[in-house]
């Protein structure tokens, strides 16, 4: 599949995608990287990797930029706003969330906010969820979830590191599953096409 990556920050997930594709661990090719924040590190990394790197401040600009590329799947990689794709990509947007949905998700739950909430609640297991995005935060069909065990001494930064390590495996696995099974398979039921 031909992939577009949308990001808002440092591009850590883009680093993982690039490494996984280069080493054969993730199917697909990155056609374009778009950031909604100007001059972020993620755009500089995209340029270094040889991907077209564009700034687009809002959905209209993002969709206009995407129209110049042949894209099958949009990957949200630390894209910190609700994205409304063009109609032809309405079911073709994947996102990763740093918890096990339906826990610690929805409006206002992203990044370290999630890990602090997990820490404050004292849960013993956290993880990440790769899911298709729709018009509501964290409600689209789930593709992959990975669990991580938490220890009593784990602080929010420790939780974040453990979850990000799981994300580095989960997101490529999810992309590979979508490539193998097709997008529609995951929308056929709320249980991920099982």
Characterise the protein shown here.
This protein has a seven-stranded mixed beta sheet, with helices on both faces. It is built from six helices and seven strands. It is an alpha/beta fold. 36% of the residues lie in helices and 21% in strands.
Helices and strands, in order, run as: EHEHEHEEHEEHH
Instruction: Look at the structure and give the CATH class of the largest domain.
Output: Alpha Beta
CATH superfamily of the largest domain: Formyl transferase, N-terminal domain
Q: What is the general shape?
A: globular
Instruction: Give the DSSP E fraction (strand runs of 2 or more residues).
Output: 15-25%
Q: SS-based structural class?
A: alpha/beta
Number of helices: 6
Please count the beta strands (DSSP E, at least 2 residues each): 7
